[in-house]
Amino acid sequence: MLEVHTVTTKIKKRDGRIVNFDASKIQTAITKAAQSVGKLSPADTNAIDDITNDVTAKIQDRYTADVEISEIQNIVEQSLINDGKYDWAESYTQYRLQQDLKRKQRRDVNFQIDRLLSKDKTVVNENANKDSRVFSTQRDLTAGAVAKAIGLKMLPKAVANAHVRGDIHWHDLDYTPYMAETNCCLIDFKYMLTHGFAIGNAEVEPAHSIGVAVTQMTQIIANVASSQYGGCSSDRTDEVLAPFAEKNYQKHLKEARELTDDPAKVETFAKERTRKDIYDALQTLEYQVNTLYSTQGQTPFVTVGFGLGTSWIEREIQKDILKIRILGLGKEKRTAIFPKLVFTLKKGLNLHPDDPNYDIKQLAIECATKRMYPDVLSYDMIKKLTGSFKAPMGCRSFLQGWTDPKTGEEVNAGRMNLGVITVNLPRIAMESKGNQKKFWEIFEERMNICKQGLVYKVQRTKEATPESAPILYKYGAFGHRLASTDTVDSLFRNSRATVSLGYIGLYEVGTVFYGPNWEHDPEAKAFSVSIVKSMADHCKAWEKEYGYHFSVYGTPSESLTDTFCRDDRKKFGIVKDITDKKYYTNSFHYDVRKKVTPFEKLDFEKDYPQYSAGGFIHYCEYPNLKQNPKALEAVWDYAYDKIGYLGTNTPIDQCFKCGFKGEFKATAKGYECPECGNHDPETCDVVKRLCGYLGNPNKRPMVHGRQEEIIHRVKHMSFSNDQIANARY
């Protein structure tokens, strides 16, 4: 039987961390070594307890100061040999050597390059919007492999080791800390289009028409995307572009007055010409964004927020954004992957039938039923959750409300995020073995590592100079024109920028402590909310200590939900309802395997974003809605005063061979047409929501766990669109 010894000696880990001695970890390590040799008998179990007690007693007797982890491992090996467990000792020693090798390999450039050359799927399929077949992407992946190895050596040792172990995840290691790049941002398009900017050797004059303004936008997007590693967003796009369309309008008024003195004809002529200019410009934006390639070897991750404008020009811009998306790309009318469209719902503007822009809401609903986008923002809830209204940076990262202390004005455009570190919550829960006190102890240890990593992210990003990314720092994308001698930190400090603490797997944590159906247990729900609240409390304390805004971020990572689960399958084995699924649940989302209506899902998830205001989104899964748009409107209206950000997942796949439209079937070869079996990406259009963005998994394969999740999402819908539309609430 395992005895409980009081050991006050602290353990010094390889990365320098000092932690409390925990005999159960020794017991677990010996047990795994024994199990690798053969099935355990009752006598073996007793032997494991005896050896653990022996090791604990020796540590207590020998050490009064901090003891190195390697010394403890030596004691374990000697105790195994003394007890005659030679095969256990060999297995234990071999495991130690393998772990040491893994740690060294992750920091070895040659090893990382070999993984790439051997087309390791976890490397080449890490991002489903990167086509690893093309040269530019291959070059970026090669550079990323080198940057990962160097980056691990640059990180604080505790952070690097925690990342390698899978306790946490340092996002975008292929870019940072090797380079002092920023993550995602809200580009200050209004400033740049109005004041001009420079790219390369070209000084670009302010735009004087909507066509030129849109072309300049795409130039800015391409350059910004190549100067950072995250998504970029255009906020209030209809309002930003309207003044440039007004220039077109004034020009056409002048032309018309030269032809006629009739005011009505002048007005009609000018508006017709301006409407065509607006449509042509926005169609150019759609095509240019989808044909751009950044230096990362991918289409820039672009989000376009719109929906608050009220003038006739702003209304026209909103409608044309939606009409062009509905129309589709090319002769086959494929669904555009980018830009991501985010439409704003607001009471008194477009929410109800008597609101002036209600007709545009109807067009947005039609667009979502046919092309999945736009996602929608609830104006009032975004203000409540984040402190001010703005579109997300990239797919789901939100800035908090911020007032410039120099001017007293609220500022959103031109601000940015400095990066994300995500904590593996399911691992903490499984390591605690259902003991909540133990959970919080491990949780605090991981929070300390995350803090160390996030502070380093800030410090490293501050090492950039304005010349490092002129489009960001010198020409206005970040809202200011810094001189070469200025510090970029002036745009980060005083909470102007955000740096984010991410999390994955609240569902799996609840399952460890309360079973797989804990969603309806008030105690379990309160416990899960308390975890996110604790992260928010830590972030507030760190902000007070350092002067930068630390935010809690519901991680969307397409590959990380697979990676963490894969790591934990190796560590804990196949655990029912946790690792057996082959994926972890994104952030605070409801288990995708459960049969619930959109209303039930939203009611469950609405309690988390108040503590996860640095990054959040909700999705609902629907059957084909094209013939019943009122069903989708029912959910949008229900969600308005409950959540801030809602995405639509509905089948919009197309087969150009047989004409089928709907949900393609997932197979080992990819997604195939259920009518004719076609899975050729050249003759079919498969669109799935892979994380915060859409993607085509037949063109660019996704990680396996993510595909499993999508299958479950569709398979477990338990409602029809008529049931949604007829819901009463």
From TrEMBL:
Keyword vocabulary terms for this entry: ATP-binding, Nucleotide-binding, Organic radical, Oxidoreductase
EC numbers: 1.17.4.2
Keyword Oxidoreductase: yes
GO molecular function, one term: ribonucleoside-triphosphate reductase (thioredoxin) activity
Pfam family membership, one: ATP-cone
The protein's enzyme class: oxidoreductase
Sequence ranges assigned to domain ATP-cone in this UniProt record: 9-103
Name of the protein this chain belongs to: Anaerobic ribonucleoside-triphosphate reductase
